[in-house]
Amino acid sequence: MILTVTLNPAIDKILILDSFEVHKLHRLETSEMSMVAAGGKGVNIAQTLAKLGDEVIASGFAGEHTGHLLCDAIRHAGITTNFIFTQGPTRTNISILDRKNETLTEINDFGQEIPAGDIQFFMENYERLLTRVDLVVIAGSLPRGVESDIFIELIAKASELGKKVVVHTAPKYTELLMQAQPFVINPDMRSNHTLLGKEVDGIEQFMEVGRHILKECPRTEFIIFTHRLENVVAVTRQKGYILRPRNLNIVNMLGYGDSFLGGFIHAHAQNQSVVDALRYASAAGLTNVEQLCKEVQDVKLINANLSRIEIEEVVF
Prior knowledge:
By secondary structure, the chain is α/β, with parallel strands linked by helices. It is 34% helix and 26% strand.
């Protein structure tokens, strides 16, 4: 059983246009060009894991009518929900995918503010959930009212019970994560390439900073950088891995990193080798970007795409 924690989930409104221009009226031509889905990084990963056949519990904060819509959509995907309902509505995020220009414009709502009492209730509930699961995924941003040291507390409580923790969040929290030392750190560097106080963008820099983090964090085993589809970099103590999908046919820039991480977690849970788990993860991400959906729909295509993944190994 896998627990995903999404402290700041959302309802995702996705609009797909042939060409997006400002100061212009756009009309959607088909229902497929407008999608509404449960969102937030942890929720997206939970949906990928459920598609792959894993048992998943999704937790976090939700509120009001949009919170009920969120939970209904998650349960419809075959995922057990265990959200704490709090004041204010769950946020709604808007994504505009321009197929002609291959751009993605995202407008993320600010979200609800979480009262201290609800945070305490969530933590108590989280401790109960930990007894039911084998691995924890903490992903996404923090809502207002929740301090960043919650990452340390969440990771510590899971680690005390021997649970592996995977964290995917903004790079500004990396120093905090290094204190807690989760199993996997996957910085979300889509819009911010600053990590540990310096610009990090390129294979050599990814390798260097990944090795530095692992040197400082003896309990952490993987640092993974997924925001460059053509050159994903994974760093372990012994080796670095560069993953390159061949003949990319990108039709969708939504959810690559979430599909990759979901694929990696699934493969790791199946006791696959490091290389095989990374190859499967990359194939899951590749499958996602070649379909016009937020997450993988046909998991059989992942196995078909395994042969399209090239892996370069760098021995340290």
